[in-house]
């Protein structure tokens, strides 16, 4: 029988009057049912979070650390069950699902020890002035479907560590693993500090506009990010937005073709390309373009696209039908325009499961949709450049500014290029590495604020300055 999962509200596992189906993208079968919450359940969750905040805000950092490490502990203890469930609802291959589960636990441990220490602004005969950080209050967390567990943990952990409480909404496409974690942490987190409620997209605006939520932390598309900003404007909620990207890699002529081909492949095709910081445009110097593009395409032919639960699968299906249709549309557009394909391009629309073959385009023009738009799927355009200046200009020619990479033996040159890229993160000779201790955020339309590290933690707090007048006459 199909399992109906429960929400976590005020320390209790609760269901709603209605449920919705969650589908396995590998075979389009229903995997489980999740509660379809609306205003009533949201109000209950927010009230619980508000009550819990009054107590939680006064806890010591040691106490918060213990709870967060407890969350990491249960995730690790149940990792086997969790990563299999994650593959079933999200589609990613088991090995990548395992990485996400252990990565989320690792993130919780790494961030559990972060603290926001007081800062002394002035300490002399006239004044002692000190800045402390105080938690903003009740946080609304809204997450997407590409890394459902990692994204949930990266909202829950800094909220708790900073002294806030949270109401988290998973994506309706991938709520189940998060709800299983909700069951597992029920007795680990104090009642009301972490509330997890599921529902359709319509639940999102109710969270954004809720008068008793103080801050929204959101990961998702730039289009939804704009709506969140509008919704949060009514009562000037604090917001952190992690949005889309159209991340460029620049490969200089000194890069070793054999060594970088496989790495470049996975920088684009991990998680079937559904990563905000996946390489979505790869600019290769003309001296090595032919050799490198051939090597990437050859490697691509060795990677199996299929059901992520099957051994040997390297690239799983697209997570949902809407995204599948969008990726197919971009491929069709490339075909209609007569662009060259190095591999892939033929989708079987009648098959079961949302499978898109690994598709690599050969030097499409800069204004091609596949270059100008975020594809968020296993389709990668390789482009030729002649000069570094040209590559930098083309890489920066985007409304997005999330991440980028430079591949070269000359790391000084790499840094020189990195400093000219208009993105929040630039990697030299790697991709997709996100440190739990460094700020991660987008420039331009890729985001607002940052997550991770002390900078990320600060976003869950207000600064408060307390000044003592030392030579006062009272
Ligand atoms: P999405 O914006 O459609 O949905 C994200 C979440 O927002 C879901 O939980 C959804 O239910 C909710 N939502 C939908 N409409 C809403 C509204 N009007 N108000 C409030 N909430 C609403 O995004 P998606 O399709 O789930 O995810 C893909 C996008 O996310 C891509 O653009 C990708 O680049 C981006 N992303 C960014 C990062 C990052 O860290 N920058 C990470 C992962 C994904």
Automatic annotation (TrEMBL):
The keyword Ribonucleoprotein does not apply. The active site is at residue 242. Keywords: Oxidoreductase. It comes from the Bacteria. GO terms for molecular function: oxidoreductase activity, acting on the aldehyde or oxo group of donors, NAD or NADP as acceptor. Belongs to the aldehyde dehydrogenase family. PANTHER family: ALDEHYDE DEHYDROGENASE-RELATED (PTHR11699). This is Aldehyde dehydrogenase family protein.
